[in-house]
User: Fold these one by one.
Assistant:
Number 1:
Amino acid sequence: MDTVFSISLPRQAYTVSVVRDVLGTLLRRAGLCGNCADDVLLAVSEASANAIDHGGPARDYVVEADLRGRWCELRISHTGTVPDPETVAERFTADHLPLPGLDSESGRGILLMRYLMDEVAFEGEPHTTVMLRKQVALCDGESPSAGGRVAEPSYVLL
């Protein structure tokens, strides 16, 4: 199923749950299994929370999803400023990221996004954008050794 989705939301904390609800419904109706859709939703939630926390002075942010062929691409963007775009971009691509301290209340979002998605990228101004990509694959089928039946496969993001 080819699907394109876009929503613009105010930079308010409650909108992260709105994104999760609307995008979650879209992903499940597109045939993704629950566990894989949850991975995508967690990564998008982290990127949305970052746009809310760090997207000033922009008043809103945009979440776009593009499910085509074997890939799902998501873009979370705002027109606010980033204090140091080079440092942020490096955190998205560095081979090793230090873990935040145990008492730290932030600093795990980029790690989660990189772990959950196949590709993660960051672009600075004029539109600060986090791009998340996952490859669509088959999942949830019953193996042939389990009674000789193979369940109808559904598509999932791995």
Note: Confidence is low (pLDDT under 50) at residues 141-158.
Number 2:
Amino acid sequence: MKNRKIIFVLALSFGMFAVSCSSDDNEGETIIPIQGKYNLSKTGKIVGGEEVLIDAPENAAGCTRDYLELRLSNTAVIGDYEGTECSLTETSGTYVRSHNDLTITIGNLSTTSDIMNLTNKELKLKDKTTGEITVYTR
């Protein structure tokens, strides 16, 4: 009788473990929060099936790197450093995240990108229209 109870408890535990693991599938969607400030690092495209990335030419030499800040309020802020004085221009808009899509709207211009990678250290986006890849780091 004791053996039956132990076997029953083990079978029940194993069954609960197996069921709970299979329902955790997020279908490839990243679960890391997207809010934060990201520094522009690299840009590029996919050529011949491989990513070709270069240091972002948009970053002005001798200046802090340009950035993208995504706030909890769904506000997107793009920071652009320019010139020898490294003057900062900030442009604000909104963003919406839907699964692995990120849509940023600044004024009348709206761009939608696939979130290729989102970790605590990197945000990699691929523009759905142009195919351009942009890599931001924290």
Note: Residues 21-26 have pLDDT under 50 and may be disordered.
